[in-house]
Design a protein that fits this description.
The protein is an alpha+beta fold. It is built from seven helices and ten strands. Helices cover 25% and strands 29% of the residues. The radius of gyration is 19 Å and the shape is globular.
C-alpha cells in the first residue's frame, strides 16, 4: 500500500491555508505552542493541525483570534469559508486617523519572570498616525504590555506601559524576551559567539548569560509611559 502524507487527503487550498498560517507564525516570531495557549488549546494542538491535519478545520472563534493577533485577514488562514467580522473603526481609519495599539494581558517581568497564559488583546491604546510618524514608529508592529518588578529601575518602573516593536529583534538595546514560558524585559548585549547577555538596569541584579537558542527575542522596547 502506497504511503500517503496526512495532508494529501485534503484539497490544495486547505493545504495552502495551513502553509500560510505556518509561515505567518514564523515571520511574526511566535511559537505554535504559545498560539495554541492563546486560543485555549493544549500546546500540541496547532502542531497536530498543521502537521497531521487534525482537526481538519479550526473553529471560527479560534480562527478569528489567531487572525487578529497575527494581523492578517481571517480568509488568509482559513481552510473553509468563514464569516468575516467588520474591522473596528480605528483599523478602518485613514489619512491622519488613529491606529489601535493592542494591550496584551501579559507582563514583561523586570524581576523574576512572568508567565504568559494568553497573548490576545484585551484593550487598545489609540494613537494618531501623525504622532506615530513623529516618533519614528510609523509602520511598526506594536504591542503594549505592562512592566512588573524593579530590576530595570530607574529606566523602567513597575506599572509602566511599554510599546514593543516586533519588527525589531536584532542588535543591542532594551528588548522583551521569552525564556521558556517566562517573559522578561532586559538590556540585550552581544556576548561570546552563540550566546546572549541580559542586563538589568538595577545594579542589585546580576547580569545573566545564556545560549542564544534558549532566548526568544520578541521585540525592541521603543516607548514607555507611566505615572509621575
Amino acid at each position: 500500500m502506497e504511503f500517503q502524507e496526512p495532508l494529501d487527503r485534503y484539497e490544495p487550498e486547505e493545504r495552502y491555508a495551513r502553509a500560510r498560517l505556518r509561515e505567518t507564525i514564523k515571520e511574526k516570531g511566535h511559537t505554535l505552542s504559545s498560539l495554541a495557549r492563546l486560543i485555549g488549546r493544549n500546546p500540541a494542538y496547532l502542531h497536530q493541525y498543521l502537521g497531521r491535519g487534525s482537526p481538519r478545520h479550526l473553529d471560527e472563534p479560534d480562527l478569528h483570534k489567531l487572525a487578529e493577533f497575527l494581523g492578517v485577514d481571517v480568509e488568509v488562514i482559513a481552510t473553509r469559508e468563514v464569516a468575516v467580522r467588520p474591522a473596528p473603526a480605528a483599523a478602518r481609519s485613514d489619512g491622519d486617523g488613529f491606529v489601535a495599539v493592542p494591550r496584551l494581558p501579559l507582563e514583561a517581568s523586570a524581576g523574576p519572570g512572568a508567565f504568559s497564559a494568553e497573548e490576545i488583546s484585551y484593550d487598545t491604546f489609540q494613537f494618531s498616525k501623525r504622532w506615530l510618524r513623529e516618533m519614528g514608529l510609523s509602520g511598526a508592529d506594536l504591542s503594549a504590555i505592562r512592566v512588573e518588578g524593579d530590576s530595570m529601575e530607574p529606566l523602567l518602573r513597575s506599572g509602566d506601559e511599554i510599546f514593543v516593536d516586533r519588527n525589531k529583534r536584532g542588535g543591542e538595546g532594551v528588548f522583551v524576551v521569552r525564556i521558556g514560558d517566562a517573559v522578561h524585559v532586559k538590556q540585550v548585549q552581544a556576548s561570546a559567539p552563540g550566546r546572549i547577555r541580559l542586563i538589568s538596569a538595577n545594579e542589585a541584579y546580576a547580569a545573566i548569560e545564556l545560549p542564544r537558542e534558549e532566548v526568544e527575542v520578541i521585540g525592541r522596547v521603543v516607548w514607555k509611559g507611566g505615572r509621575i
